Amino acid sequence: MVPGHGTGAAHGGEHLFELIGARAASVDIPLMLDGIDLGEHSPLAQAQQLAADAWGARRTWFLTNGASQANRTAAISVRGLGERVLVQRSMHSSFTDGVLLAGLVPAFVQPAIDSRHGIAHGLTPEALDAALSREAASGRPVASVYVVSPSYFGSTADVAGLAEVAHAHDAALIVDGAWGAHFGFHPGLPDSPARLGADLVVSSTHKLAGSLTQSAMLHLGDGPFAGRLESLVERAYSMTASTSMSSLLMGSLDETRRALVLGERRIGEALQASDALRDRLRADARFAVVSDGFEAFPDIVDVDRLRVPIDVSALGRSGHWVRSRLSAEHGIYVEMSTATAIVAVIGALTVPDVERVMSALDEVARAAFADPDPVASSDAFPELPEPGELRALPRDAYFGSSEVVAAEDAVGRTSADTLAAYPPGIPNLLPGEEITAETVAFLRAVAASPTGYVRGAVDAEVSGFRVVTA
C-alpha cells in the first residue's frame, strides 16, 4: 500500500532516510488506519480535543495546508450564517480566496495605519460598532466579521471587546490569529482569542508556536454561534482538506501542543531574551523599537513580546537593505522588512543569541553609515486611497470575462483582480470594485518606489489593469 517509499530504508525509502532520517520516514503513514485516525476516540480525535482544551476552544481541526486553508474554511463556513461579511481591509489574501469561493458579499472597515512605517494595525470595538451600524442602517446587516489580531508587527486588538460588539449585532467573529498561535501559554503573552470570545480562530501554529511548516489549526469558540458553526466548519473542512493529510504535519501539531502546555519556563526564557534584545536596541541611538510607539494607536491593547520590530531609518538605508545584509553576511534571517524597519520574530520555545544579533546589527549599521543611500531616507508612499464602490460580487467579477487595459483607461472600470501594495500589504483592489484615479496613482507610485511592489499586478510597473468586460 502507500506510501511508495515503504517507510523503511530496505523497502524503497533510502532517499528519504538520507534527507529526513529514519524516524521521520518511518512515521510518514497514510490515513484510515486503526490505532491512528479511525474511530470516534482515535488518537487523532484525542489529539484534536487536547488542542481544543489547550487553546480554550470548543473544537479544533488540524490543518496541513497552513492558515491559508483555515481562512478559506472559515469563509466557506460563515456563508452558512448569511452572505454578507464585514472584513478588516488588511485581511490575508487567502480569506479573499474564501470570499470568492463561498460567494460572500463583503463590506470593509479600515484598520488603523502607521503611515511612517507602512504598518496596518487593527480595529477598536468602537470602529467595529460604527461599521456594523453603518451596514445595518443601509439595510445590509452582516452575518459575520473578520478581523486580524495580532498584526505582522505584534500589535494586539481588544478581541474580547470586538467579540462583544459583533455578537450584539448578531454577527459571528472570525479572528485571524495566524501570528498568535502561542498566545495563552504564558502570563507574559496575550490570551488565546478563543478564550476571549472569538467564534473562529485561524492559528498558524508553525509560525511562532513551533510545529512543522505548513501545519496549522482552526479553533471553534464556545460562543453563541458554536452550535450552528460546528457542522458548517466540518463540511467546509472536508472541502478544503487533502484526503492524504500528512501524518508528520499532524503529529507535529500534537507535539507542539504538548510542548507549549508544558513549556511555560521555556517560553519565559524566550520572553526574557526578547526583552533583553529590546533593551539593547533602546540603548543604541542607531535603532529604535517600533512597538514602543504603539500607545499612540487606540486599537492596540497589548503587544506580542516575541516580535521585535526595529526602526532602522537612522542608518540612512532601507529596512530591505538591512535585512539583506543580515542574511547574506551574518546568517541572520528576520521575518520581514519595510522601507524603515525590520521585524525579528522569536519562536515561543526558542532562546536566541542576543549578543550575536546585536553584533551583526552593529556591523550592518557601520556599513550603512560608511555608504549611505540618500534615496532610502526620503522614500515615502502616498496615503492609502479609499476603496472604490463594489459594483459586482467578487466571485462574478473574478470568473467573468475580462481584458487588460492601460492604467489611464482603467479609471472607472471594474477590477477583475486583487491588487495589494506592499507596504503595508492591504488589498487596494478586489474583484468587483471600481478602479479610481486615486487607487491607480497610489499603486503606480508604490510600484515605482525602490522599496515597494504590487502583488497581483499584470506587470511590475502596474502599467495595465485587468478589468471586467461588459
UniProtKB/TrEMBL annotation:
<dbReference type="InterPro" id="IPR015421">
    <property type="entry name" value="PyrdxlP-dep_Trfase_major"/>
</dbReference>
<dbReference type="InterPro" id="IPR015424">
    <property type="entry name" value="PyrdxlP-dep_Trfase"/>
</dbReference>
<dbReference type="GO" id="GO:0016831">
    <property type="term" value="F:carboxy-lyase activity"/>
</dbReference>
<keyword id="KW-0210">Decarboxylase</keyword>
<dbReference type="InterPro" id="IPR008286">
    <property type="entry name" value="Prn/Lys/Arg_de-COase_C"/>
</dbReference>
<dbReference type="Pfam" id="PF03711">
    <property type="entry name" value="OKR_DC_1_C"/>
</dbReference>
<comment type="similarity">
    <text>Belongs to the Orn/Lys/Arg decarboxylase class-I family.</text>
</comment>
<protein>
    <submittedName>
        <fullName>Amino acid decarboxylase</fullName>
    </submittedName>
</protein>
<keyword id="KW-0663">Pyridoxal phosphate</keyword>
<feature type="domain" description="Orn/Lys/Arg decarboxylases family 1 pyridoxal-P attachment site">
    <location>
        <begin position="202"/>
        <end position="216"/>
    </location>
</feature>
<dbReference type="InterPro" id="IPR036633">
    <property type="entry name" value="Prn/Lys/Arg_de-COase_C_sf"/>
</dbReference>
<dbReference type="Pfam" id="PF01276">
    <property type="entry name" value="OKR_DC_1"/>
</dbReference>
<keyword id="KW-0456">Lyase</keyword>
<dbReference type="InterPro" id="IPR052357">
    <property type="entry name" value="Orn_Lys_Arg_decarboxylase-I"/>
</dbReference>
<dbReference type="InterPro" id="IPR000310">
    <property type="entry name" value="Orn/Lys/Arg_deCO2ase_major_dom"/>
</dbReference>
